[in-house]
Specification:
By secondary structure, the protein is mainly alpha-helical. It has a domain of 39 residues. The chain contains 3 helices and no strands. It is elongated.
């Protein structure tokens, strides 16, 4: 019983490590875009907006609730 409880607790804790938020993915894409622009010798394009600004623009474009 004790081992099962410990195993269940560990599995529950580890499952939280696998959660990926949309904000995390968006921020990673922004970081990759900035990293690509460094040292390339080209002028950086329009930078991606912050995640909050992105969500605001997205909510204006899609009136349906998610």
């Amino acid at each position: 019983m004790n081992k099962a409880l410990i195993a269940l607790t560990l599995l529950g804790g580890l499952s939280g490590c696998g959660l990926i938020s949309t904000q995390g993915v968006y921020d990673e894409i922004r970081a990759q875009e900035r990293a690509k622009a460094v040292g390339s010798g080209t002028a950086p394009g329009t930078p991606l907006p912050s995640y909050d600004q992105y969500q605001k623009e997205r909510s204006v474009l899609s009136p349906e609730p998610r």
